Amino acid sequence: MRLQAETIRLGDHAWPVRPLTLAQVQAIEPLLLASSAAPTGSVAAAVAIVRVALARDHVEAAAGLDDVEAQAPEIAAAMASVLRLGGFLPAQSGDTLLGEADAGLPAASIGAAFTPA
To answer: Total structural domains in the chain?
Structure first.
């Protein structure tokens, strides 16, 4: 099962966001590295990460993101959703990623049902 879209909510706005493309993941990675070097989290980095996710399907929302009235906990939650969609954070309980269902099985049992012809 593939990871499903998540709804990003900031202030009075909500946008459905699909799992990220490789290009989006590559755009987010340097933002994460730069913000991890800071002693505290960066709201600017969180906004930039959310902007990358919105840019594919919600171009106008991405361009006007700085004008949205929202508080720091909301942007943190929105960023966490984006990071889950990009695979930077584990999926929430109930979501199953490809291959995740087999991850806890011993190696021998994963391919046990497969028998070459």
So the answer is: 1
